[in-house]
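Exercise 7. Given the encoded structure of a 73-residue chain, write a plausible sequence.
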């Protein structure tokens, strides 16, 4: 959820975020497939995309037993 929040603080959301767009390399989190990134202020559906990104990631982790508090978008 930290990466979703960090992008949002910069005014963006991935737009199609799923665990398949999240990689870990040398202990660092990397997001891929960013061409469809959404400007939260300019796009009228920006907050909808942000919520969908957060729900997609949280749902994947919840389905695999992550503590509800940690996976709460």
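Solution.
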């Amino acid at each position: 959820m930290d990466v979703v929040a960090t992008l949002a603080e910069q005014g963006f959301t991935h737009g199609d975020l799923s665990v398949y767009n999240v990689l870990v390399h040398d202990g660092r989190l990397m997001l891929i497939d960013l061409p469809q990134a959404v400007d939260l202020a300019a796009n009228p559906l920006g907050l909808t995309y942000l919520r969908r990104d957060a729900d997609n990631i949280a749902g994947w982790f919840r389905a695999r037993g992550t503590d509800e508090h940690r996976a709460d978008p």
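Remark. The CA atoms of residues 6 and 43 lie 18 Å apart. Students should compare their own answers with the one above.
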